[in-house]
Q: What sequence folds into this?
């Protein structure tokens, strides 16, 4: 109590510090840290040359281009529609709002393999949407476009759930001030609201992007998996494993991990920037 | 007469935005869900039922339930311990610990499977030793369980930490000063406070554990009737062009996703205050 009275946070008054610390660090090391370090160590198991040879082969480079490119396009599509959906959910009252809100989390709950075969059935050239699209000369399934569709499916909730709390907390007074000062509604949106929610939108898009890059289950069914054209990096890892080239598989994994970790770092920076701006 | 809220968009704009949102969610999310059930029932209920009660499918269901029954409690214990550590104690490196716990979210599921092959596989670090002692990890249930624990690692911690931080430490400190033991304090004070948040975290963990595809696909070896989980069984059937059977098992998984979403919405709706701190 004395330390409280002096205005300092109470240090370790509650028990269980060593027990939970021991448990957490041990479990974290066993499940995450040691296995992950294995990838980095094994990727150089057959020398640096082999790492470069497999990790940066023409086929691997093409797969990075396909994977990261499709994930970026999907994140962009979701940023636009995700923001619109969040806006409707937060600002409008309408019957069925709760249902709409629940539907958004479907990609979190639906197993990816199920999503994969369902999307393939819909976008194959005999499918509900695939047939009309094929008539228009836009093939989707078994083409790189299919990868974008799958990653768009997977990524939507990341945008909505990240932007939602920020948009809901946004005070209406600044909007009212802008309107009072004669701003048009669209100006209010682009000059007042958008700058406020941009950090959250970027964070959500980055999370969706990261998820898309790693995604496997929903993509492989619809992708067609043509080397150099529609082959994603996670599939290439599995191909290397099936050829018993563990070091090669690890090399591609390391390249992917490094790009993903860089993304994570950028997200953290954005969130930090966001917190500082909010004055917390 | 009612004056219109100046912040509210004109009615046609609102209806337009709402229609776009509903159309996007309908086409992107609802259509795939509907496709699963339509494809499953293409040849009637009987064909769908047969695909599910067939021995290999039953073995897959059993394995999926077993894997979830082991991995979910493991992550539950770890999640509560780590949340207690992070929320109720002050120590250096807390931010780093949280980042490390979050790592599995930014790692591709395929890489999550790969790391266990690199360690426990026939050509892995412990492979020869395990083989000499007659222990199989990879291409067997232990490997599948470990990969599942990895991909569901952060869910419970992520749910509990913000909640427990928001609830503070005063109640626990009061219980201790009144003579309760550490364990009594935890079970009688903390646990009742976090029970809905905990249930929420377990729900998300379970959905992901039962539906995981990429990570499990790498470590399972796809032995029919033995190491195939439900999502893997879907893939095998699909690749054999046995579409009705594939979609029937997929429909079972989709039902699981729907139950998860309903329970999740129920928790958010009826225990909003108890989940308030977690940002949902």
A:
């Amino acid at each position: 109590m004395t330390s409280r009275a002096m205005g300092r946070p109470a240090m370790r008054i509650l028990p269980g510090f060593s027990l939970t610390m021991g448990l957490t660090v041990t479990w974290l090391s066993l499940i995450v840290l040691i296995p992950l370090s294995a990838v980095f160590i094994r990727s150089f198991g057959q020398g640096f040359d082999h790492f470069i040879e497999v990790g940066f082969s023409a086929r691997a480079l093409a797969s990075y281009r396909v994977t990261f490119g499709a994930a970026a396009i999907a994140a962009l599509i979701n940023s636009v529609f995700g923001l619109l959906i969040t806006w409707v959910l937060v600002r409008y009252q309408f019957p069925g709002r709760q249902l709409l809100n629940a539907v958004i989390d479907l990609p979190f709950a639906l197993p990816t393999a199920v999503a994969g075969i369902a999307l393939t059935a819909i976008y194959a050239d005999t499918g509900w949407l695939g047939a009309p699209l094929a008539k228009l000369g836009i093939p989707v399934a078994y083409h790189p476009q299919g990868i974008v569709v799958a990653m768009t499916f997977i990524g939507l909730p990341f945008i909505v759930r990240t932007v939602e709390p920020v948009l809901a907390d946004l005070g209406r007074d600044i909007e009212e001030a802008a309107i009072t000062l004669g701003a048009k509604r669209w100006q209010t949106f682009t000059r007042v609201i958008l700058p406020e929610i941009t950090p959250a939108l970027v964070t959500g898009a980055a999370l969706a992007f990261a998820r898309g890059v790693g995604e496997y289950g929903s993509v492989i069914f619809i992708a067609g998996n043509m080397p150099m054209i529609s082959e994603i990096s996670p599939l290439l890892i599995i191909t290397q494993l099936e050829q018993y080239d563990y070091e090669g598989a690890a090399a591609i994994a390391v390249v992917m991990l490094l790009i993903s970790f860089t993304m994570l770092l950028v997200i953290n920076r954005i969130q930090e920037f966001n917190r500082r701006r909010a004055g917390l | 007469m009612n004056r219109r809220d100046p912040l509210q968009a004109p009615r046609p704009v609102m209806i337009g935005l709402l229609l776009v949102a509903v159309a996007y969610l309908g086409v992107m999310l609802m259509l795939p869900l509907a496709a699963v059930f339509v494809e499953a029932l293409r040849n009637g209920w009987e064909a769908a039922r047969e695909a599910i009660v067939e021995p290999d499918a039953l073995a897959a269901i059993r394995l999926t339930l077993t894997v979830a029954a082991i991995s979910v409690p493991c992550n539950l214990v770890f999640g509560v311990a780590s949340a207690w550590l992070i929320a109720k104690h002050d120590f250096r490196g807390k931010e780093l610990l949280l980042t490390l716990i979050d790592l599995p979210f930014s790692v591709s599921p395929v890489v999550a499977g790969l790391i266990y092959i690199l360690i426990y596989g026939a050509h892995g670090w412990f492979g020869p030793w395990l083989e000499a002692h007659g222990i199989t990890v990879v291409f067997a249930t232990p490997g599948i369980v470990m990969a599942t624990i990895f991909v569901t690692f952060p869910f419970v911690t992520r749910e509990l930490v913000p909640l427990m931080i928001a609830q503070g430490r005063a109640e626990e400190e009061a219980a201790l000063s009144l003579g309760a033991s550490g364990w009594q304090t935890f079970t009688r004070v903390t646990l009742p406070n976090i029970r809905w948040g905990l249930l929420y975290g377990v729900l998300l963990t379970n959905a992901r554990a039962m539906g995981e595809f990429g990570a499990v696909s790498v470590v399972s070896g796809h032995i029919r009737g033995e190491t195939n989980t439900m999502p893997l069984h879907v893939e095998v059937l699909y690749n054999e062009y046995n579409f009705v059977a594939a979609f029937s098992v997929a429909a079972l998984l989709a039902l699981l996703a729907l139950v998860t979403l309903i329970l999740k919405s129920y928790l958010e709706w009826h225990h909003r205050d108890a989940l308030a701190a977690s940002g949902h």
Observations:
- Chain B touches chain A through 96 residues (CB under 8 Å).
- The CA atoms of residues 71 and 165 of chain B lie 26 Å apart.
- Chain B has a mean pLDDT of 90.
- The longest helix of chain B spans residues 55-88.
